[in-house]
Amino acid sequence: MIVNYIKVNIDILNIIEQINIVGPGSLSVSLITAFFVSIVITLQVAKEFLYLNAVSLIGAILTISFLRELSPVLTSVIIIGRIGSYFAAELATMKVTEQIDALYLLRTNPVLYLVIPRVISCTLILPLLNFLALATSIASSAFVCFTLYSIDPIIFLTSSSRSLSVGDLIKSLLKTIIFGFIISILSCYYGLSTTGGAKGVGQSTTTAVVTSLLSIFVVDFILSYVMFSQLDSSIKVL
What we know:
Blueprint: H1 2-51, H2 55-96, H3 99-105, H4 110-149, H5 153-163, H6 166-192, H7 197-228
């Protein structure tokens, strides 16, 4: 009973440690990236819609783009670059230095002790980062529209709020949960399958990052087609 209690506490502490690595450490990078990417996209989109005299649609179009695609994918790419590579390199180093074998000697399952906490932390934190990035993108777009194109923030935010739907929010959440699971699983898999010393660590990290990126893009296309291809226009009521 005491041994099981200790193991459970170790796992919980491990999960909390990984959440701290994935979440606070990636927050600033995610928000800065969302801020500047949204500004660039807003500069291009707002000018064209002003030419078409469709000011009331700018907020809706940008919000739909950020919510359905840009925020989930960009946040996932950031997590791959920062956390996926970290997971792969850390586990690869443990593998080549025989620390994984030491866990077996201690009768500790490496999957339960090393992989599961990383999968849980990435799957939980990525949706939160996604919604924070979404809020940052909308706010920065409203700011740019006001300062550069004199578009009233009330008009922008009203258009934005009308285009939001609970269904889209849930689907965006589901996307990031799936992305977080894929990123953590692939990173841990390539890390634990490392061979060949320091060179193998570098190769495993690179392979994990590249494979995760390609997987996210492919899965994003599949999910977007399944989730959104049959929907009516979100701006027809505006």
